[in-house]
Predict the structure.
Amino acid sequence: MTEKKKYNLHSVTDRVHSGLSRRYRAEKCFRRFGVCAIGLSLFFLVILFADIMHKGLPAFLQTQIKLAVFFDPELLPLENLETADFNALLKSSCRALFPGVKGRRSKKSLYKLVSDGAAYELRKQVLRNHKLIGTTQDLWLIADDELDMLMKGNIARNPTGRFNQQQLYWIEKLEQDGRLRRRFNLTFFTSGDSRDPELSGILGALSGTVLTLLITLMFSFPIGIGAAIYLEEFLKKGRFSDFLEVNINNLAAVPSIIFGLLGLGIFINFFGLPRSAPLVGGLVLTLMTLPTIIISSRAAIKAVPPSIREAALGLGASPVQVVFHHVLPLALPGMLTGTIIGMARALGETAPLLMIGMVAFIVDIPKSFNSAATVLPVQIYLWADSPERAFTERTSAAIIVLLVFLVLMNASAVYLRRKFERRW
Amino acid sequence: MNMMLKKQFYENTATESKLPDADGIRQTVGEPFLENSRISCREIDVFYGQKAAINKVSLDIGSNEVIAMIGPSGCGKSTFLRCLNRMNDTIDSCRVTGSILLDGEDINRTDVDVVLLRARVGMVFQKPNPFPKSIWENVAYGPKIHGLAPKKNDLDEIVETSLRRAGLWDEVKDRLDELGIGLSGGQQQRLCIARTIAVSPEVILMDEPCSALDPIATAKIEDLISGLREKFTIIIVTHSMQQASRISQRTAYFHLGNLVEVSTTRQLFTNPRHQLTEDYITGRFG
């Protein structure tokens, strides 16, 4: 008996021992697989970021050109300054740089070095300060986008390209005189879209995004959390609740463009809300984010330990008091996480906005929920579609702005979660 | 080995024909009825879906007494306890029939206000479950939602007397604003008791309040229960027969959803009248 037992024991250890190396090998294999997976994703992430940064960062600098502008009183009659010909003023300043230039074509190629926007800049300065008239000022004015590209090395310096021999000579001369410099591109952050890359900015799309997301947050957060609380705490479990649950889960997986069609049909065609407006965009994105928020909020409510509910009920709290005094504070961090995930998805959404006309060339910066607007991802799409070389770097710059926005949103989510998180 | 077999036997017979010893079990032996009862339950049945959890339990509970419920796991003693403050309402599939009179009023009717009922019948749970709030807020929560203290001073007074009565005041008086979950297990359970008595209920239900505690913390809570008897009626579910014999005046023995025997504690432990009771308390099964 004892011998048999001993033998058995021996064989058990042996068997375990013989299997051990196989088990450890499997574990090692799995670990290596995990490291590879993470390494690969990090690698692609680094490539993505490096590419975007490499392309986008130069867009935050803009080439400027120094002109000695003579504010000619003849061109600028005091009685109607508003409508004065500032283009002519700009052209004469260009000619003053290279007095030897003759002929229409040569002059035209000279004017092309300075952006059309420079004339607006001159107008602004004169309207602000009438005393400028009659004086000569050295002004740094915004250069044309092609000159900007040349200076940044994106266009080759040879006469076969976009610049002719004469222009290249002028540029060299300007450089030697110290009349070209690169400064922070404030225009990019202070203006809306434009046909001229050097005058286009992100502010229009950015404020469109902020307005749209505000609407989305305002509607989807209370509605989503209210629905989640009702479904989880008050609705009797049964066939109807199962039916609702299946449908909410399905809605979360519906392609977003379908929500766009729904928005077009309901908000624009039926209720007659304006096209291209952040209000409609926000409502459409609300429909799209609601399922995400409801699902994650329900999960957060489910995670609240039932003992807390029982304790409150046992003290005589009414169901609503149980929810608002105990369940909601404990579930809030999870609800916030779900909301931010939903909002981040809404931030990057383009397809549903196609349907309600938010894909449009909009120069003005939207001031209200009703004004025409576009959003960051749509702006990225529009710029990526433009032929000008300078829009390529602006596309990447817009992506950087979008990513920064996203990181800020997620950081605020982490902060809020930390703040509300409690142990139990 | 013998014990195991016997247990198996009882369980098998129970599943085959719900009432193995029909008259012997369904007829509660001992003294389930009292002259002046605080709570009187008549023919209570509880079903979870189709499954019966307790069958036709009739029992009276007097004022200012501690009555202990003992019995093997799953015998329905906690289910019975939860009928008394309608906590079974929170389980969708649960159905309770029969009448439960609290001071002559049937509390098992649908038109009874459960919020009011639970203010009158407090409950302490198996696992200490303080709210993730400060100690002060934990105790003050009940009086606050019921509007028992119009002024904050009154609330402070209620918190202090409740904590004193629960024997916790000296340990926590300097840190009332700390989280209740920062306390030790025994302190947490006393905090839960303080929270319950802060509402001044008439009856306190305790569902194995000491099962998660060490012997020293258990002893403190047992002392506390004996002290609380002067003001409250206490119904306690326990797995420990020693505990039942130490703190209760009467003891009820449940078996497979039936109330087998109710006697004075001394009688039940020294001279049980039913065979099942005797088997259980002598440790032959359970």
